[in-house]
Amino acid sequence: MKSLARSIRVLLLLLLGAFIAPPLARAHVGSKDVFEQVDAGPYKLFVTIRTPTVIPGVATVEVRSSGATVKNIHITPLPITGEASKHPPTSDPMTSSTADPAFFTGSIWMMASGSWQVRFEIAGDAGPQIASVPVPAVALSTLKMQHGLGITLGILGVFLVVSMAGIVAAAVRDARLEPGAIPSPNRRRRAILATAGSLVVMALLIWGGATWWNVEAASYALDVYHPMAVTPSLSGNTLDLNVQPYDGGKQRSSRSNKDFLPDHGHLMHLYAIREPEMDAVFHLHPVLTSAGDFRMSLPSMPAGNYKLYGDIVHANGFPETLVSTITVPVDMPGGPLGADDASGSPQPLSQGQLGNSYKLPDGYVMVWDRPSTVSSNTAYAFRFHLLDANGKPATDVQPYMGMAGHAAFVKTDGTVFAHTHPEGSAAMAALMLANDNTDSHASDHAAMNGAMSMDMTAHNEPLSSTVEFPYGFPSSGPYRIFVQMKHGTTIETGVFDVVVP
Q1: Whole-angstrom Cα distance, residue 117 to residue 62?
Q2: Among 351, 370, 449, 487, which is least packed, fewest CB within 10 Å?
Q3: Measuring CA to CA, how many Å separate 328 from each of 184, 269, 297?
Q4: Are strands 406-411 and 269-275 parallel, antiparallel or unpaired?
């Protein structure tokens, strides 16, 4: 009977859904959804892809179209690289809103973890077009069964076990009796033995089911995303970031520390933000000196503890944000900022919330067109303007690493970090791979470097003084936004605060 009791407890735990893992970072910390502005010929699409937290799972896709009129959109999920990327499955149609024909919704199954893309086949007044948006699809957790449902299923399970034992006992004791006859003592003994035997068999079945479940759960846990480990070390002002490969036991979950692609001309974009006041921020670019070893000489930095967020992109287009911390001592020597590096010194969080206008050190001003209301899990195109010292739109805006600007949306408790661009939240290297028609060159680092170089030198004329960043806050709470734009040879960092209800 003790064995039976243990087996019933196993059954209850099994039905209650035993474990859950916390959400982890991948492309961005705590911000799993993808926001992208897509130019597909004459069609302009604002794309939101809400990825599932478990794989296999369903991703929901929303598209707001502008430009030429879009009549219909079909969407297809497929890997960015590899043989499977050449053989897409049948596409699924998106549904246009009856109230707003320019708004489309749809859903797709993401069947395996890895570096995926959603391909958009667009049909409209200006003819057909195709564009792709990269999506890092990973399991972030296991699903936890609802408490009430688990209790209900546990009670039903116990009821079934007891009922089955009762059926066996009745069959052995009464099946061959004439109507109205009373079972003999021998039949009662046989019924008791049969009941005990059936309980033992059912206990073994439950134990076997629990063992199978644990094996399957352990196998699935290998697919739950774990970021690559990074170990920082600081000697003088030389920072070393040692990135270890991740072996998940499965090919699709393992990641190398030797396959990084340049994104905006750099293999790593490193944000260093001083804690807890967030009153110093640096956007830096360490250099890969050997497999997994990024190194750089830090510039002059105020002493204190810094949270580090390092963005990298693998050869298959899968992006990751690696998180670590360092302590900068008071006497650390510092050098100048690199050509693409930027810094900012906003007021500490404890001194109150920053407003919609941020005065920059050289007299320029950055202004945020803050929406009248901001809510979580809602897609926005956040707009910022750069004004000169006379309060006029800046006329000398230049590309900053090939873009009109860069932004980092950071929750003040460090649980959310998203480095985004005017095109969206996807890494440019992944976006280029997803839209590359010649997949055979997808892992060619030299070709990617060349493409990025052309991207950064394509703009010879000053850019608009206005820049937009597609993004949606994943949760409520206070955030600090760091926006970088370049005018002339000066890289500015504007800083803004927002509390998301």
Answers
A1: 15
A2: 351
A3: 87, 19, 13
A4: unpaired
Q: Are 448 and 262 in contact (CB under 8 A)?
A: yes
Instruction: Return the biggest CA–CA distance within the chain.
Output: 107
Residue type, 454: M
Hey, is 387 helix, strand or coil?
strand
Contact indicator for 400, 48 with CB cutoff of 8 Å: no
The helix (run of H) or strand (run of E) holding residue 147 is helix 147-174
- Please enumerate in sequence order all residues whose Cβ is within 8 A of that of 128, keeping only pairs 6 or more positions apart, or say none: 121, 122
How far is Cα 492 from Cα 483, in angstroms, rounded to an integer?
8
Cβ neighbours of 176 (radius 10 Å): 10
Return the closest-CA partner of residue 164 out of 203, 204, 198.
Answer: 198
Dump strand ranges (E) for 230-286: 230-235, 238-243, 269-275, 281-284
> Which tens digits make up the pLDDT trace of 314-337?
999 999 999 999 999 999 998 899
Contact predicate 493/284, CB 8 Å = no
Instruction: Measure the CA–CA gap between 86 and 361, rounded to whole angstroms.
Output: 51
Query: Across 218-356, where does the E strand assignment appear?
Result: 230-235, 238-243, 269-275, 281-284, 287-290, 293-297, 304-313, 319-328, 342-344
Q: What is the pLDDT of residues 4-50, one digit of tens each?
A: 444 444 343 333 333 333 444 566 898 899 999 999 999 999 999 99
Residue 319: beta bridge partners? 313
Contact present, 125 and 68 (Cβ < 8 Å): yes
State the pLDDT at residue 125: 94
Opening angle at CA 448, ends 446 and 451, nearest 5:
110
Contact 436, 419 (CB under 8 A): no
Helix (H, G, I), strand (E, B) or coil at 31: coil
Task: Provide the 8-state DSSP code for 489.
Answer: T
The answer to whether 456 and 67 are in contact (CB under 8 A) is no
Q: Distance (Å, rounded) from C-alpha 245 to C-alpha 255?
A: 6
* List of the chain residues with pLDDT < 50: 1-24, 438-459
Residues counted in the chain: 501
